Amino acid sequence: MEENQNIQISVVVPLFNEDESLPELHDWIVRVMAENNFSYEILFINDGSTDKSWEVIESLQAKNTQVRGIKFQRNYGKSAALHVGFQATKGKVVITMDADLQDSPDEIPELYKMINEDGFDLVSGWKKKRYDPLTKTIPTKLYNGVNRMMSGIKLHDMNCGLKAYRHEVVKSVEIFGEMHRYIPVIAKAAGFGKIGEKVVQHQERKYGKTKFGMNRFVNGFLDMFTITFITRFGKKPMHFFGLIGSIFFFIGGAITTWLIVYKLFIDTGSRLLAERAEFYIALVTMIIGTQLFLAGFIAELIGRSSSTRNNYLIEKEI
Question: Which of 66, 106, 123, 263 qualifies as a cystine partner to 196, CB 3.0-4.6 A?
């Protein structure tokens, strides 16, 4: 713990093919740290770059001992890079930023203050004025609007790469798949509820080209439903599947009861129940209800045998 307190800020920079921008980003970060007299470390997480990014990181580390580098064998994605970077950090406050120079290191002092003095667990940047094309800004606004509604976290730019965290937050959350877009949601579910936002400057891309594609837009919405389910029902799947299954089974049972009563006391003719459309509606809803209920039951059995079923974060102990 003493080693952690000696480093005020850890800057985690995940990157993929950004060799042109790394020297400028490094010098910019170093200048900001020197001007504010911060003790720091810079972690460059090379996510399987195929250019000279790793050679650049090695040269930066040779002249600056505060630089650390981690190189992946292949491209695993931003979530993997952030997860590994988080586990390696030693600073009291952790700052994440993209390597493309679109995030300004000049924001670091204020972000650090909001965590260290104002008591926030997490502060997310908000690029209020963006220099991205409409093909990126419009989907981003739509995504953020839906995300605010589903998660209850009032952030305008959930996916902004420029964020600040308390040390305890990055050591407590687990990021996987493409869940880096939902770190505030994961943090809130882990009990870190003091989440703030800061308007930050958005720089125009200076080198290379954007990694954004429409597939990220589609995957982002799918991941949104995944993370919503996991955070709300990950420990109690029966509350979700069992409730919906019971509703379906009740509807099917009610229709079946009505058909039997109708057949016995109202329509006593020769028409069979199997000839009525309501019979098949009742049958299908009861089957769906049974399957959903069994899915919840099986999920509960799996959850109870999981090694992480009793993983709880303890804040203090005396």
Answer: 123
Phi, psi of 42 (to 5 degrees): -120, 120
Amino acid 167 reads H
Domain final position from 200, 233, 266: 233
pLDDT along the chain (318 residues), means of 10: 70 94 96 96 95 95 95 91 94 95 94 95 88 66 75 83 95 84 87 92 72 61 71 78 92 91 76 81 93 87 66 57
For residues 271 and 224, the answer to whether their CB atoms sit within 8 Å is no
Check residue 2 and give its pLDDT: 41
Rounded to whole angstroms, what are the CA distances from 109 to 38, 52, 55, 112, 114?
9, 30, 29, 5, 9
The pLDDT assigned to 65 comes to 94
Tokens of 100: 């493309």
Distance CA 54, CA 22 (A): 10
- What is the CA angle 75-76-78, rounded to 5? 105
**DSSP H or E segment with residue 272:** none
Q: Residue 152: left if φ>0, alpha if ψ -120 to 50, beta else—which one?
A: left
What CATH code is carried by the domain that includes residue 13? 3.90.550.10
Calculate the CA dihedral of residues 143, 144, 147, 148 and round it to 10 degrees: -150
The four Cα atoms 282, 286, 288, 289 give a dihedral, to 10 degrees, of 130
Give the structural domain span for 291.
237-304
CA 169 to chain centroid, in Å, comes to 13
| pTM beyond 0.90 | no
Q: Are 225 and 130 in contact (CB under 8 A)?
A: no
Name the domain boundary from 207, 233, 259.
Answer: 233
